[in-house]
């Protein structure tokens, strides 16, 4: 079971992956990293070599190594050596920062080296979006990738992107809360694509025209999310999806399952929705999902859907009902 160190109300299960061996990994805020082998959970904390207990993103590379992004930087888990060395399970990897990097002026994130998103491209190079900008790793060297058109950022004066995606054509997409629209890199230049404003729910609706790139579906459409809803890009234009289309609210995560359904997770009570290409099905407490603030969604190789929520919640949807895998149970 997922357990907590402190008050679970302040934690999220915010990242997840299934590795090549079939293990499930879940990253949390404040409560470390969990590995589930199908029978039991193992928890890893700073004592095991992590540089933080706040895990923001994960990637298994083509060699089977797992890269772990935290609010303090980057760690690496190498299953071929970690268990045989007798030392720490995780090695800290430091991204060398340019000498002329502007200082991080955001009070809350001052001096952090937060890694938001990790991607391994078809070229085998690994891309990292961080609070200190975007970096590309070729196996030996980290190289800064500058998006000149995305001056400034939401979290600092120098981060340009919070989420990265590679499409089937090899374009790299970037998006972040501090920029207008999204950015596409075709290997030569960066193009800024503008978006229609979507409005966040609330007594004073806020307009948002930024977006996080989330995935490319089986039909080739690229999906983006923001606090007002989602966008579908067909290669020519963006189609917004909001409450009027049946999507309950803002979106934090989107995945596509093996059947071609899209799953949307939202924060602030937006909950979990499944889209079959025609209409949205919304899952709530009556289905066993007791927390409606979703921060991660993963389909495992068996077709089960794993959902991570606020209040350190973890649920498995087996196609019929949600089963809780967290020690703490949300009280409405």
Please provide a written account of the structure:
By secondary structure, the chain is mainly beta. It has strands at 13-18, 24-28, 33-36, 41-44, 55-60, 66-70, 73-77, 91-93, 115-120, 126-130, 133-137, 142-145, 163-166, 172-175, 182-185, 190-193, 198-199, 207-208, 212-216, 222-226, 229-233, 238-241, 253-256, 262-266, 271-275, 280-283, 294-299, 305-309, 313-317, 322-324. It has a domain at 12-243: YVTN repeat-like/Quinoprotein amine dehydrogenase (Methylamine Dehydrogenase, Chain H, 7 Propeller). A hairpin with a 5-residue loop joins strand 1 and strand 2 (24-28). Helices cover 0% and strands 40% of the residues. A four-stranded antiparallel sheet has the order 1-2-3-4, with no helix packed on it. Strands 5-6-7-8 form a four-stranded antiparallel sheet, with no helix packed on it. Strands 9-10-11-12 form a four-stranded antiparallel sheet, with no helix packed on it. The mean pLDDT is 89.
What shape does the CA trace take? globular
What is the mean predicted local confidence, pLDDT?
89
CATH fold field value of one domain: Methylamine Dehydrogenase, Chain H
SSE pattern, N- to C-terminal: EEEEEEEEEEEEEEEEEEEEEEEEEEEEEE
The quaternary organization reads as: single chain
Q: Assign a percent range to the helix content.
A: under 10%
CATH superfamily membership of one domain, which one?
YVTN repeat-like/Quinoprotein amine dehydrogenase
Which architecture of one domain would the CATH scheme give at its second level? Answer: 7 Propeller
Residue ranges: pLDDT <50 for 5 or more in a row?
A: none
CATH class of one domain reads Mainly Beta
Helix tally equals 0
Major sheet description: 4 strands, antiparallel
């Amino acid at each position: 079971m997922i357990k907590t160190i402190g008050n679970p109300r302040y934690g999220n299960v915010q990242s997840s992956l299934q590795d090549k061996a079939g293990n499930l990994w879940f990253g949390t805020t404040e409560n470390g990293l969990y590995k589930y082998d199908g029978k039991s959970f193992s928890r890893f904390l700073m004592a095991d070599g992590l540089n933080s207990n706040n895990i923001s993103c994960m990637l298994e590379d083509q060699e089977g190594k797992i890269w772990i992004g935290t609010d303090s930087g980057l760690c690496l888990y190498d299953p071929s050596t970690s268990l045989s060395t007798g030392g720490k399970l995780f090695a800290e990897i430091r991204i060398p920062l340019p000498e002329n990097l502007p200082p991080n002026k955001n009070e809350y994130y001052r001096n952090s080296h937060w890694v938001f998103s990790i991607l391994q491209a078809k070229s085998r190079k690994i891309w990292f979006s961080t609070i200190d900008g975007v970096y590309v790793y070729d196996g030996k060297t980290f190289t800064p990738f500058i998006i000149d058109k995305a001056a400034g950022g939401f979290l600092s004066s120098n981060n340009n992107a919070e989420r990265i995606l590679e499409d089937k054509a090899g374009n790299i997409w970037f998006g972040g809360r501090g920029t207008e629209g999204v950015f596409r890199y075709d290997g030569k230049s960066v193009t800024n694509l503008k978006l229609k404003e979507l409005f966040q729910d609330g007594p004073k609706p806020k307009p948002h025209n930024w977006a996080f790139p989330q995935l490319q579906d089986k039909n080739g459409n690229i999906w983006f999310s923001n606090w007002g809803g989602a966008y579908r890009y067909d290669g020519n234009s963006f189609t917004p999806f909001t409450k009027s289309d049946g999507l309950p609210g803002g979106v934090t995560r989107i995945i596509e399952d093996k059947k071609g359904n899209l799953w949307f997770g939202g924060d602030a009570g937006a909950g979990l929705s499944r889209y079959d290409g025609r209409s949205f099905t919304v899952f709530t407490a009556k289905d066993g999902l007791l927390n409606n603030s979703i921060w991660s969604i993963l389909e495992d190789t068996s077709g089960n859907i794993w959902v991570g929520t606020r209040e350190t919640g973890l649920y498995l949807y087996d196609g019929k009902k949600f089963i809780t895998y967290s020690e703490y149970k949300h009280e409405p």
